[in-house]
Design brief:
cell membrane, flat, 2 domains, two-stranded antiparallel ribbon, 433 residues, sugar transport, transmembrane, single chain, transmembrane helix, MetI-like, MetI-like fold, mainly alpha
Amino acid sequence: MTDPKVQDPKKARLLSIIPGLGQFYNQQILKGIIFLIGFIGFAIEFIVFGFQAIHDLITLGSQPVVDNSLFMMIEGTLQILVLVFAVILYIANIYDAGNIANQINLGKPASKTFMEMIKNIGDGGFPYLFSIPAYFLMLFIIVFPVLVTLFIAFSNYDFLHVPPAHLLHWVGFKNFTSLFFLSSYRKTFNAVFGWTIIWTLLATTLQLFIGIFTAVVANQDFIKFKRFFGVIFLLPWAIPAFISIMSFSNIFNDSAGAINVQVIPFFNKILPFLHMPLPSWKTDPNWTKVAIIMIQGWLGFPYIYVMVTGILQAIPNDLYEAATLDGATAIQKFSHITAPTIFTVAAPIFITQYTGNFNNFSMIYLFNDGGPGDVGGGAGGTDILISWIYKLTTGQSPQYSIAAAVTLLISVIVIGVSLIVFKRTGAFDLGDD
């Protein structure tokens, strides 16, 4: 009795340097043909289109009007993604050849016909069958725009260099150094970035505080008409945010708004010792900042209220009863039972509230268009980074490359802070399998 043929995994991988040959060695003729045709197709595409696209990405053209640097940048970026996808398939081809050789040596038959391949995918590769298209779409829908933004940030794309009338050029880290060292941009960036941090911390903390406070109070046993209060608390969430913001923009009008015309005079009448002044909500940057922080607290708390209410209802009453028997006060119950449970469950959501307000364009733009005042560089007194980017790209003298650089900085900050907090809180720690 002769021994079954032993496949050499190393030989299979070496043959797969030319895609498909390793599969031929494993007698998977159909799979080998698929890999070989894919390799030949990519080679033809790269020779006909790809090489020129990469060359154009590097040079960004040589003749104004004739060459469109922006299109060259986009086409080159697409070619890079195609190249990355081809490299992944090439590596998969080598891995597959060696893996199948090992399986044959273990007595597992290799799929040779089309139906056997389909059956094998259905049995062992079903998750990959559904995840690969998602990753493929993510590559071109998410990664592609990010790469284009990255490339623009390293170019001189501004109102003086608009393709195709003018060619773009690579300027390296000049746009980033301008933000930190060029006096005009440095002053603006520091002012806008500082206010963005203050706005994010105060506005988000306020909406978290109101949401948690209302949920905890409404969840107490002695509170009556809980459903009624629940509906009232949800009203800010039910009304579209842009309508609420536009309404508040009118309510806080300095001369004709309800706050200055009716609310404050009413309190001054019934409480004359207060003598509350009439703030310049829309013309004083400091009062505008106060207004939008308060408004965001009102708009954002219902979501926190709903989420925390669900968490509170899941806390066993036995914990509170045991704490009562031990003589714990209401504050001690909250600090040792309620608060830890809320923050343990909802920490990732709370972080997303901070990152969301960090890029809350609607509130800043709709309330007062980032004004009043001017801190330089086209930014108003209440502009945050995201609204400043909008003005950099839509103003009379657009600065696309600077806007792209700021966009990348925002991404780094948001992603970095989120990863650090998520890791420290164990938000995505699913445990060992």
